[in-house]
User: Which sequence fits this backbone?
């Protein structure tokens, strides 16, 4: 018998009437793209995280591509990142013809381990791309110290961590550049969308040019007239529209309540599952507060009579939308063809075999949360 009538996804947006009004207002305005909403959204995001500049993109992946370009990554450069991420993180390195180098994770936090980063540094290393996996900030102080010692650029993939706290500040000013994604399952949504925040005017200008065909109206080589602009590099059309920015701006009004709700749900799960002892949630670093984009259980498989797959399938049959985040990136056939081999990051690989993502998102009702707890208990005990 099913626990629930309807399928409970692992994540979902929360759109209200104000969001809808904001989008409609932009649809009735003179600008659908390259108008005032994009600039307003960028300023509001920069203000929220306390960064000087923000450059929006059509999605988070394009934003990461822009960041890798602005960091000057090119053929022969190595970039150290985590294998436990969405493939877009390391794909952005490949877009720039760089070489992703995977450093193993800290099994307690599931984030990239700074000691493993150190082990992977070579004279070719150009940058580090930590990911704030599940919404928990990576160990940024340690990573920035390593970067300073070796003169590396740090691009933080904050796709999960918009609104999370790191040592009394919002995530977004620790790295040289931080990316946030506004895909519907992420902390706030603009439909599709992404952004890079930075304190560097130089990176800011590079990002802006890259996003818009490599064109500029500044520092021109000739003065042909007021219409004149120049294309100075091969850029892309990676712009966000005003329609998307209007939705993002409206969502930003509710980010703190969204994060609050995620923290409450995580608290309920933590308490419920601590008692059953055969699962653990990620250890939280001191002075950080996760945004809880994902809630992941690590199963003690040798104490359970079922496999992870059986547990997954039983919960899905109960309409609980469990998931697994993520398959180690270099296991994918495309990466295998590039020469990456199984066994590269043993801790990440072992970890991957034992984890399960549970539903968590602000619009979940108390009943939804109870359904998850009840179903997990039923399947595991
Ligand atoms: C979602 C996500 C991205 C890509 O963002 P999009 O906006 O979907 O392109 C990159 N990295 C991580 C870790 C993500 O979760």
Assistant:
């Amino acid at each position: 018998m099913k626990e629930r009538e309807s399928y409970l996804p692992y994540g979902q947006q929360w759109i209200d009437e104000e969001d809808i009004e904001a989008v409609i207002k932009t649809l009735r305005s003179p600008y659908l793209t390259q108008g005032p909403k994009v600039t307003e959204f960028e300023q509001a995001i920069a203000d929220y995280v306390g960064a000087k500049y923000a450059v929006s993109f059509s999605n988070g992946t394009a934003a990461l591509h822009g960041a890798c370009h602005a960091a000057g990554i090119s053929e022969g450069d190595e970039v150290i990142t985590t294998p436990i991420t969405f493939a877009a993180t390391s794909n952005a390195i490949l877009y720039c013809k760089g070489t992703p180098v995977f450093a193993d994770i800290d099994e307690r936090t599931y984030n990239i381990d700074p000691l493993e980063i150190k082990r992977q540094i070579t004279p070719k290393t150009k940058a580090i791309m930590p990911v704030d996996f599940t919404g928990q900030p990576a160990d940024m102080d340690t990573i920035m110290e390593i970067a300073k010692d070796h003169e590396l650029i740090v691009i933080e993939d904050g796709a999960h961590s918009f609104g999370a706290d790191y040592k009394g500040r919002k995530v977004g000013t620790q790295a040289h550049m931080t990316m946030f994604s506004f895909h519907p399952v992420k902390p706030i949504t603009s439909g599709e969308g992404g952004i890079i925040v930075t304190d560097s005017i130089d990176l800011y200008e590079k990002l802006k040019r890259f996003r818009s065909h490599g064109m500029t109206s500044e520092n021109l080589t000739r003065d042909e007239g007021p219409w004149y602009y120049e294309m100075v590099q091969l850029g892309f059309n990676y712009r966000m529209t005003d329609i998307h920015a209007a939705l993002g701006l409206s969502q930003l009004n509710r980010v703190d309540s969204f994060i609050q709700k995620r923290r409450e749900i995580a608290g309920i799960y933590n308490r419920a599952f601590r008692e059953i002892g055969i699962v653990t949630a990620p250890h939280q670093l001191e002075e950080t507060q996760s945004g809880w984009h994902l809630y992941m259980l690590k199963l003690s498989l040798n104490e359970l009579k079922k496999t992870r797959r059986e547990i997954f399938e039983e919960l899905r049959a109960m309409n609980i939308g469990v998931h697994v985040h993520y398959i180690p990136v270099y296991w994918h056939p495309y990466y295998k063809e590039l020469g990456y081999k199984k066994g590269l990051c043993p801790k990440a690989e072992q970890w991957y075999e034992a984890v399960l993502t549970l539903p968590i998102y602000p619009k979940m009702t108390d009943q939804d949360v109870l359904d998850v707890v009840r179903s997990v208990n039923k399947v595991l005990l």
Notes: The chain is about 40% helix and 15% strand. The first helix runs from residue 17 to 27. The CA atoms of residues 103 and 119 lie 8 Å apart.
